Structures
1.
Amino acid sequence: MSVDKDTRRGLFANPAVEARMRKRRGAERRFRAYGRAAVAFSIAALAWLLISIVSTGASAFTQHWVTLDLNLAPKDTDTIPNDRRRLADALAQAFDVPSNEETRRELLQIISASAATADIRQRHDEAMAIKITVPTSDLADQFLKGHIDPALPQGQRPITDRQISWIAILDAEGRINRRFNRGLFGNPDSRDPERAGLASAIFGSAMIILIAGALALPVGIGAAIYLDSFAPQTGWGGRLTRFLEVNINNLAAVPSIVFGLLGLAVFINFFGLQRSIPLVGGLVLALRMFPTIVIASRAALRVVPDSLTDSALSLGASPMQAVFNHRVPLAAPGMLTGSIIGMAQALGETAPLLMIGMVAFVTSVPSSPMDPATALPVQIFLWSGSAEAAWAERTSAAITVLLAILMIINGAAIIWRERLQRRRKL
Amino acid sequence: MTISEPKSAPKFTCRDVSVHYGDFCALQNIDIDIADRSVTALIGPSGCGKSTLLRVFNRMNDTIADAQVRGTIMMDGTDIYARDIDPVLLRTRVGMVFQKPAPFPRSVYENIAYGPRLHGLTRGRGELDTLVEKSLRRAGLWDEVKNRLSAPAPSLSVGQQQRLVLARALAIDPDVILMDEPASSLDPIATARLEALIEELKTRYCIIIVTHSMAQAARISDKTAFLHKGELIEYDQTDRIFTNPADARTQDYITGRFG
């Protein structure tokens, strides 16, 4: 049974209705287009960020090492002042060039002089033939990774023609190999890019987050449960409750540097704790996380239907049993998500840590929360301010590490949340 | 269990009961006696205070922040609003079924076992299993769920859920069951099952039911109370209320002229 098109139209529409419908459809199409554009824009921005950071930082995860056979001169403090000089002389001998001040300076620029000197210092003071394997210098490393264009005239590049020829000799002899940069994770900070690592920052950040989480999670979740289910809702008590809630919301909007100032004033100046230690960092970031956790947990608790707690109460559960047996378990996934977001924010927090002196140059791996340490975002900040090309690479690598840690934490949170939800559903 | 006690002493005696929510007076000066082992229906238009009155009997109004209850409510001669009465203990004697079934998001078994576990009513898994079965049987649900006791309770149909929460209330062996429009979200078949169940249960329990359906009140209750704007207008044997009400407002309501 077919109805011809005009009749069918006539059933539903007249010109005025059609015009209105066209407008409505147009508005709908435009709104969808805006939505797609917004999503595309944010994905593009994120992709650009990730690609630029990862492409800059990827090469920092490998490093060139060089193996050298050197004939060390005996240690003689009269003619040869130090191990650095012994090393330079041995290098000059190896490359068969006269050892003068200019040559020695250039030679020491192609290997990690500080690593090699430290290595020599371990050995005897006599004349001896040694074999050492050390990182190349940041300069040689950048050159070998192709970040320095040898076609440029000598004055416009940081590496000299002579240095390039030496590196070519070492490479031809198979003395240079590229390996995974373990030092990036195992070493603390250093003045030399080739020896600088994130160990102090990773341990510092881990301790800060553990301390902040251990303080802010129970307090924040406890406060949220109390405010949700037990705090007075009427009269003066209710006003106080609402006043508190408004102020917790305000606290979340306070710029984080203010928390740093607070930490400086309270924990360092008043309680006399040391500067730059993870304990103070953790305390400050606990304050920072607290409102986030309270707000997220409150929101998660609010959506649990009252009918469940009412049912439990009608079965003779005490108010606390009703809340903890039925309200909290259902809100747990949401609380967890909020807490993880708070933790992730704290992990990326820089400004308050600067205020409490965690911006210090720390060349040892902290072994307790009372040892000076730095944190990942602060380390990124520190490295980003240094001039050499190798630092740019390492800064991006550090950002990649921070992002990877955040993704692992968030991923773990999602898996945990799904598991909690599945268990609730049975 | 064929010998029934004399029904002379009322289960609940309310004298001059008023309930306020803040400044709003939800119930004023209610005097009512509720008989044991019978069904008492509370009817009236929306907002008349019938749910409030129901929640007086197990002190659920306590959970509403600004609710105030005045007057005396005696259960078996004890003032249930006395200072030394813990509402938590009162609620173990006075169970409640809400308008919308709210099964806990756990298994069928866990839903029933929750109350007995709270109060330590059983020793060991065997006794608990028996109690769960007994409660489900009493609520007429056993045959439908006996093979899926570990299924999540929210996956049952709404009618089954309503009987599940009834079984959950029965599991702690109360004396009184309060029902707040228990059939409002049920289809006619599920409603008929529930009503048959109420008929059975009234031989053991004092049942007070709030209902919007006058036909339902007429079918299942022994006595009916008509409330209007917070006042108890009329309270009498159900057949009297529905055939020969004393008050004109009752007459108007049951004939559908308002409400």
2.
Amino acid sequence: MSYNVLLVDDSSVVRKVLKKTFALAGVPIGKLVEAENGRVGLDRLGEGWIDVVFLDINMPVMNGIEFVRAVRASEEHRHLPIVIVSTEGAQDRIDELRAAGVKHYLRKPVTPEQLAEAIQEVLGGLPSHE
Amino acid sequence: MNNEHPLKKTALKVLEDWGMMLVDEVSKSEAQFDQSLPLYMSWVEMKGAFEGAVSIISQEQFLKTLAGNLLGASEESLSDEDAKDAFREMGNVLAGNFLTEAYGTDLSFDVTPPQVNEIPFSELATLGSRPVSFYFVADELPVAISFSIRERA
């Protein structure tokens, strides 16, 4: 069993680092889909099943907060688990995101341990291999 | 009591987190930028209780070293875009962590997506006149970091 993950971050280097961090955390990835902003992220959601989204906030075109609102307004994806990976530190922003249904918040830079903990919280842990 | 400026403290932490092994604060004159090579600036603007900007200035070798450290890749295998992207993201991480370090979690700011541009050397000369600027040598590579608040009209 493995997870399909959507990474939404305008930095290709951050997306590459997160991919490595998933491997270091022992998270089995089925399909890893990338998007450079929220708008492209919404398009990617329409292309196949995604288990969890790891989302930056500060992006051009469509930022992370706008992406969360769009996903929550969608009938199909309203319950999709979203984990924020950002430098945002303001408590009211984090509260706003949690109120919008964001399951977990990670502060950049992210360690493999933090990533594993986020997966545990939003998806109930690493899938067991038969 | 620790009187270290929050920008300096954050910059040192980010440089070390991003794999720079030896980071020393130096004077402006000790930060020897090579005038025969391009100069790059990564910057982020913020708007909230005040308007301001955080910027980082360095040169190509620093950008490549940073990207290589982050990706665990040899510098030869990295593209120019990888190097600029890593530098851009460093601006983003530095600005976000600096705002929390300096102003806590009660103030929120709208922060622009980070940008990277090649800048003229004259820009480096103006950096010293900004109220908050620090110079570092990170793994023998010069880096200048500054924070400025824009006066409201």
